[in-house]
Amino acid sequence: KTFTFTPPSISGKTLGTNNNDYYELEIFRQPAADTSTAAYTIDIANVQLEVGSVATDFEHRSFAQELELCQRYYFKMTADDGNNTMFGVGWANAANQCIGIIHFPQSLRDAPSAIETTGNASDYRVNEFGANHTATGGPTFSTATKNTSTVYFTVSSITSGRPMFLRANTNDAFLAWSSEL
């Protein structure tokens, strides 16, 4: 089915400041006269919204293609294997800091300007020849391109120049980069 419609304008409407505004299109709603609590089931698939007055053929994309397109805007590494999760490799560039390079699986549409983390340094660690060192600061980053990000972990008592693994220390640990429009 193809439905062409002109949505009402939001011109003159007051929008909030929390970046939580949205434009809602309701496909199905329980009729007002129906006061039952019986559950409804509605299955909708293969929806495509387009701007313009002409509908184009439906684009069939694989999950891999869709993921690749999404990762151009946002990439998140999670501790899916708890403290066994390795985010990347790096080296100790000082006795209290490890630097690593994270390679994105897909080129972002633009270089991200920040890194998202849990905010708890202790959710991260570095591994130096089998010895684990819980982070005391970070992770932070100084530079990023469309393809990589330089990430810093602050730790104590590591040997400068040695290779390191940047790892999760808890199941909550994550690193994420946004390249939203």
User: Element order, helices and strands?
Assistant: HEEEEEEEEEE
Shape: elongated
Evaluate the radius of gyration.
Answer: 23 Å
Question: Which whole number gives the mean pLDDT?
Answer: 88
Strand order of the largest sheet: 6-5-9-2-3-8-7
Number of strands: 10
| Approximate strand percentage | 25-35%
Helical fraction? under 10%
Give the class from helix and strand content and strand pairing: mainly beta
- Helical segment count: 1
Largest sheet: 7 strands, antiparallel
Spatial separation of the terminal alpha carbons:
31 Å
Q: Stretches where pLDDT falls below 50 for ≥5 residues? A: none
Secondary structure elements and pairings:
Blueprint: H1 63-70, E1 74-78, E2 86-94, E3 97-103, E4 115-116, E5 124-128, E6 131-134, E7 137-144, E8 148-154, E9 163-168, E10 174-178
Antiparallel strand pairs: 1-10, 2-3, 2-9, 3-8, 4-10, 5-6, 5-9, 7-8
Structure, described:
- With 181 residues, the protein is mainly beta.
- Helix content is 4%, strand content 32%.
- It has one helix at residues 63-70; strands spanning 74-78, 86-94, 97-103, 115-116, 124-128, 131-134, 137-144, 148-154, 163-168, 174-178.
- Strands 6-5-9-2-3-8-7 form a seven-stranded antiparallel sheet, with no helix packed on it. Strands 1-10-4 form a three-stranded antiparallel sheet, with no helix packed on it.
- The longest helix has 8 residues, at 63-70.
- The radius of gyration is 23 Å and the shape is elongated.
- The model has no long low-confidence stretch (mean pLDDT 88).
